[in-house]
Write a structure and sequence with these properties.
Residues 310-378 form the Rubredoxin binding domain. It is found in: Cytoplasm. Its cofactor is FAD. Its main location: cytoplasm. The chain has 383 residues and is an alpha/beta fold. Helices cover 22% and strands 29% of the residues. The protein has 3 domains: 4-109 and 243-305, FAD/NAD(P)-binding domain; 113-240, 3-Layer(bba) Sandwich (FAD/NAD(P)-binding domain); 326-376, Enolase-like, domain 1, CATH 3.30.390.120. The protein has 9 helices and 24 strands. A 5-stranded parallel beta sheet has the order 3-2-1-7-18, covered by helices on one side. Strands 20-21-24-23-22 form a 5-stranded antiparallel beta sheet, covered by helices on one side. The structure holds flavin-adenine dinucleotide. Flavin-adenine dinucleotide is lined by residues 7-13, 32-35, 42-43, 45-46, 79-80, 106-108, 127-128, 154, 245, 248, 277-278, 288-291, 293, 321.
């Protein structure tokens, strides 16, 4: 019997495998991952310091437990080097091959590397999986200083988590507000003020240009607004963005844009190869969040089990995990709506409407309790 082979054991790979096994208990299932294959929830990586959890504390299952639960073979620490579509095999780094009937790419996204000079650039870290998180925690002294490059969602979440965990945090961000592109300035200011009150320092309108070893730890040189001062840190964490991993697909001749292009059945330009999760671009949409990949996993599981299915996305608001100032945001899908900002006690209600239709919203602080009622009025992202 032809195998289903899934590349990747992140939330996309493991959720798909679980959904598939609910429908098909027999077809041989193989998962291949470059990492250690432990099952964990990636969003927890930016909440671990406040909870005092190390990487082992965040891991939920070993690959052996997952293999048993899924009745699957799981190859860990195994980098896939290429896909041979004519032979229907994936080639592993050691030269061996694994044949597939259907292949699923759940390869995730990789951190964008900042452009930096200096003698300590190789000590700049990013945290995009459990092993990165372990490495980051391991080189951070108790109560140490962290310079975060990037004031986007992930940078702000780490800032909140680290300061809550007793560390000293300075954030360097290129724009004049935190979370540009996601939050309007009033909501961004609320988050920045709340984090500042907790003790986070911000260097906005600034970019990190160099990282050097100094007498007092690492020195991050800045350009832009705050270029007069360098940031001193024990660890530099880069959080300037993620980019879908498309190289394997592109090298195999599959259609790619920002992500690996798939239609609503999650099929790539090769009908025997599918993609989902952070690496995929579904009908032009790249969504680096959990809710879309869950919808894709449920839909693709049906297709792989023999009942062709098309994915649909409902409204998918994003919760920003900054407990100092909780935020829920549902960006409008189209331009041209009317924005209205209302102050409520302990928060902001910012809505985007056209006539009586709600197109999107941003809620901060106590106003986040309104999300359930507002969600009912939001349009579906991909009906
Ligand atoms: P990944 O988890 O990155 O998995 C990719 C897999 O592919 C890995 O197993 C890797 O080893 C494997 N792989 C890659 N290349 C190869 C290769 N060549 N050969 C073999 N294996 C390979 N989203 C939310 O919705 N809410 C949140 O609160 C939230 N918080 C987040 C916090 C942080 C710190 C981060 C980084 C992300 C957060 N996200 C959040 C995003 C969310 O976690 C991701 O969208 C999701 O986890 C992506 O899962 P994935 O399986 O597609 O990718």
């Amino acid at each position: 019997m032809d195998s289903v082979v899934i590349l990747g054991t992140g939330l996309a790979g493991y959720t798909l495998a679980r959904e598939f096994r609910k429908l098909d208990k027999e077809t041989p299932l193989v998962l291949i991952t470059a990492d250690d294959g432990r099952n964990y929830s990636k969003p927890m990586l930016s909440t671990g310091f406040a909870k005092g959890k190390d990487a082992d504390g965040l891991a939920m299952q070993t690959p052996e437990q997952m293999a048993e639960q899924l009745n699957a073979r799981i190859l860990t620490k195994t980098q896939v080097a290429s896909i041979d579509r004519s032979e229907k095999v994936v080639r592993l780094e050691d030269g061996s091959t694994e044949s597939y009937g259907k292949l699923v790419l759940a390869l995730g996204a990789e951190p964008v590397k900042p452009s930096l000079s200096g003698d300590a650039v190789d000590r700049v870290l990013s945290v995009n999986d459990l092993e990165d998180y372990h490495a980051f925690r391991s080189c951070l002294p108790e109560g140490g200083r962290v310079a975060i490059l990037g004031a986007g969602l992930i940078g702000c979440e780490f800032a909140n988590d680290l300061v809550a965990g007793g560390y000293q945090v300075e954030v360097v961000g290129a724009s004049k507000h935190v979370m540009p592109g996601l939050l309007p300035s009033s909501a961004a200011s609320a988050v920045q003020e709340a984090l500042t009150l907790l003790g986070v320092s911000f260097h906005l309108n600034s970019v990190g240009t160099s990282v050097n070893q100094g007498a007092n730890g690492l020195e991050v040189g800045l350009a832009g607004g705050d270029s007069s001062s360098a940031v001193q840190a024990d660890v530099v964490l880069s959080a300037i963005g993620l980019r879908p991993r498309i190289a394997l697909a592109k090298d195999a001749g599959l259609a790619t844009e920002t992500g690996i292009c798939v239609n609503r059945t999650l099929a790539t330009s090769d009908p025997d190869i599918y993609a989902l999760g952070d690496c995929a671009e579904v009908e032009g949409l790249v969504q680096l969040y959990v809710m879309p990949l869950m919808a894709c996993a449920r839909s693709l599981a049906k297709t792989l089990a023999g009942e062709a299915n098309e994915v649909s996305y409902g409204a998918m608001p994003v919760t920003v995990k900054t407990p100092a100032c909780p935020v829920v945001v549902a960006p409008p899908l189209e331009n041209g709506g009317q924005w209205q900002t209302e102050e409520v006690e302990g928060g902001l209600r910012i809505t985007c409407t056209r006539e009586n239709d709600l197109l999107g919203y941003v809620l901060t602080g106590t106003a986040t309790s309104e999300r359930i009622s507002l969600n009912k009025r939001l349009p579906a992202i991909m009906p």
